[in-house]
Amino acid sequence: MIASTQINKLIGRISIYDDAAAYKELFLIYHGKLIHFCKLITGSYESAEEVVSDVFLNIWNKRSTLSRIENFHLYIYIAAKNRSINYLHKSSREKTF
Fold first, then answer.
1. Which residues contact 11 (CB under 8 A, 6 or more apart)?
2. How many CB atoms lie within 10 A of CB 6?
């Protein structure tokens, strides 16, 4: 696992300097692990990809507030879990119609 100090440095670069290279590095660190995690929840690789894309898009859109997060590792996994659950609820409602 990557050291939390390295993650914190990346978060700082993203939130302060809008550093796209740091964002890409953060993406590469977490992407595969989050895909696997979300696949366990959604049951589908394609759904997991969509969820993880949404999580990372949200991180980029709210990058100025990232420095306030104390435990980014926990934050990103909770965000992925919540998005996965929301995805399942949304898809079940669409199947009803």
1. 26, 66, 67, 69, 72
2. 12
Between helices 20-42 and 45-61, what is the axis angle to 10°? 140
For the chain, give the longest Cα–Cα distance.
48
Spell out the SS3 assignment of the chain. CCCHHHHHHHHHHHHHHCCHHHHHHHHHHHHHHHHHHHHHHHCCHHHHHHHHHHHHHHHHHCHHHHHHCCCHHHHHHHHHHHHHHHHHHHHHHHHHC
Q: Which residues of the chain fall short of a pLDDT of 50?
A: none
Residue 3's pLDDT is what? 86
| Matching residue, tokens 């119609």 | 97
Helical packing angle, 72-96 and 4-17, nearest 10° = 70
- pTM summary value: 0.91
